[in-house]
Amino acid sequence: MSGATDHAEVHVVIESPDDSAVDVLQEATGLSKQRIKLAMSQGAVWVTRGRNTRRLRRVKRALSVGDEVHLYYDAGILAEIPPEPALIADVAAYSVWRKPCGLRSQGSKWGDHCTVVRWAERHLRPERPAFTVHRLDRAANGLILVAHSRSIAAILSALFRDRKMEKRYRAVVAGDFSGQPNPVRVELPIGDRESISEISWLQTSDDRSRSLVDVTIETGRKHQIRRHLADLGYPILGDRLYGAGETDGVDLQLTAYLLAFHCPVAGEQVEYRLGENWLPDL
């Protein structure tokens, strides 16, 4: 494939009831039908009808005159192979997963095949739809919830928004953190929005070059833990955004290891915790 067709964005209006998405996109881009079908299966094709825009996955889905089909084609993104998450619990209405480093929490217009939500849709039995509840940095790993109805997604998302979800993280940071207050409360705004983290020292390596810390957060701003620790002068190991210098190929040493909340299905408090084998250490 030529470089010119490794990346394409096209928008085509259906002009005949006989038009198919694959045919009109092939004519508009010159891409093979096989590549367009792959893009459809991996969430890079969308259809707009009226005010509603949604992913178009089924090759044989009937389209109407006036529908607009969108293709967001990036060969590099579509070639990515998603790292495999681990199912921690399946409560039918929602599921709990251990997201590995590199797997995304949610997709983009360019595709969603490398997301935990799409993985759940394709691998859970019985099959069911999946909806994003909250996000975890692509570089981080740990527990993440996936809802299987819009109503449950709204309830679980509200628990995060209303600060009724207990979240705990474990991280390995550069430097000796033992001299900090234990715990230290960080209230540094992010993007002019309130951001609160509480960090507790657990252990420091023999050479004093790194420390193990436990983190709870009251808010959930983008990169909050990474930014707060970097601002304190103790960046997380493997942090390519906020760290200091080379990471030597080390993955981000940040793990979301505990979620505790009032379960909308069981009607009682529940707690999900990763085993010690999945936690970072010194």
CATH superfamily of the largest domain: Pseudouridine synthase
Helical content band: 10-25%
Q: Major sheet: size, sense and barrel closure?
A: 10 strands, mixed
- Alpha-beta classification: alpha+beta
Q: What is the overall shape?
A: elongated
How many H/I helices?
6
Task: Note the beta-strand portion.
Answer: 25-35%
Indicate how many domains the architecture comprises.
3
Low-confidence stretches: none
* Distance, first to last CA: 46 Å
CATH topology name of the largest domain, in short, is: Pseudouridine synthase
Q: How does CATH name the architecture of the largest domain?
A: 2-Layer Sandwich
What is the succession of H and E elements? EHHEEEHEEHEEHEEEEHEE
Q: Averaging pLDDT over every residue, what do you get?
A: 95
Count of distinct strands: 14
Question: What is the level 1 CATH name of the largest domain?
Answer: Alpha Beta
Please state the CA-atom Rg, rounded to the nearest Å.
22 Å
